[in-house]
Amino acid sequence: MNEIRFWLNGKEVHHPYEPTKRLLDVLRDHYSLTGAKEGCGEGECGACSVLIDSLIYPACITPLAHVSNAQVYTIEGIKTLPSYAIIEEAFIEEGAVQCGICTPGMVMATLALLKKTPHPTLEQIKDGISGNLCRCTGYNMIVKAVLRASLKGESPW
Amino acid sequence: MVEHVIARSLDEALDCLNQHEYTILSGGTDHMVQKRSWAGTKPLFTKPVLFLHQVKELYGIKVDSNVMEIGAMTSMTCIEEHPQTPTILKECIRQIASPGIRNAATLAGNIANASPAADAVCVLIALHAKVVISSANHTYETFVEQVITGPRKTILKQNEMITAIHIPLLVPTFHAFYKVGGRMADAISKISLAGFIYIHNGKIAEFRLCFGAVGPKVIRNVEQDFAMLGKDIEYLAMEMDSYIDSYIEAISPIDDQRSTKEYRQMVAKNLIKKFILSFVEATNG
Questions:
Q1: Does the domain formed by B5-168 have CATH 3.30.70.260?
Q2: In whole angstroms, what is the distance from residue B165 CA to residue B175 CA?
Q3: Are residues A60 and A14 in the same domain?
Q4: Burial class, A115, CB count within 10 angstroms (exposed 0-12 / middle 13-18 / buried 19+)
Q5: A85 and A105 both lie in a single domain
Q6: Range(s) for CATH 3.30.390.50 in chain B?
Q7: Average pLDDT per block of 10 residues along chain B, 285 residues long
Q8: Are A44 and B186 an interchain contact pair (Cβ–Cβ within 8 Å)?
Q9: Is residue B25 less than 8 Å (CB to CB) from chain A?
Q10: How far A99 CA sits from the closest chain B CA (Å)?
Q11: CA distance linking residue A113 with residue A1, whole number of Å
Q12: How much is the ipTM here?
């Protein structure tokens, strides 16, 4: 075995066999997808959140082996989706973006939540973004933005 | 150097273990942090890694004659979402880390990792859960508390791995899982308690308390728990203080970055009290 195959933002890729390498490093260094950030590097801050087979994962503690044969989506890959436009608009309207470093992760967490729970309660929203740290907003604007997106969006998340 | 292996079947995984020493990766949520190095470099695994992620036989949940069998690679999210998962385990999983971690993390990994602060291990011991351990030559079952021998230490041999977890589905008369951490999400417990009481004909038929983060491993004071069997609820309420005192003698919390020995001792007492009083109130109410 000399490569790991997966689908990155919809395109099939064959990456050299480096199974222990962190998905985050592969995305940023090899594919120049820098939307996923390294915050804590221990799976706590959520700045590196990506979707793997529609579920959210911290890419900083995901070994490349774990995406073998899987569909990986980063913030760059979801930008063209109608659901992204709804989330973006809701984040802007609620002022949910300040310094911006947590934002890609927050958007991924929002999408992951709405895919599973299109009409979440406040508690479900808080749980949905509980793995994403934000040091600017105090979270209230983000929670409101997720709620707003859920009310706007009847699109298939 | 033996290469890292992404096993495609259980047989392949067990064959590998029979031939060499590997670090087995389940969800990887702890190993990838423990072995982390600088950004852009590979984690510093000292042994070749055996990835179980593609082993289909290790996924899924089956319920048969009141026992739930959980495949070793089944994520905490899937376990939490299953309709027959015991409520106490669901409540516990919801308090572990965050959705992203729960999508990756497994109960088998939580057991094999043998952290003294493992929340789910606490609940599994209180539920009398067993672990199925397999090697290329044999398979056997044993209780979760017998698998873990100390901090980061288990009975698992080099050629063995956990393939499933068996949880008896006895519905408790009363249960609770309490977690004390620095914040709601993404917090390693300062102390945690899982409690399970089953009443039969007015008498205590099962009494199981299990503590996390107050000793070198998740512990249950079996002697004290057994002393409760056959007693009635009034006895429990009456003897609560002496029960707590003798229980506290058996635990050995330490000072660390998350908490202090004194704090843990005090909170351990209070949690047992809260558990027993809530139970008495629930039964009388």
A1: no
A2: 20
A3: yes
A4: middle
A5: yes
A6: 174-284
A7: 93 98 97 95 96 98 96 98 98 96 98 93 97 97 96 96 98 96 85 95 95 88 90 90 85 86 92 95 84
A8: yes
A9: yes
A10: 22
A11: 36
A12: 0.96
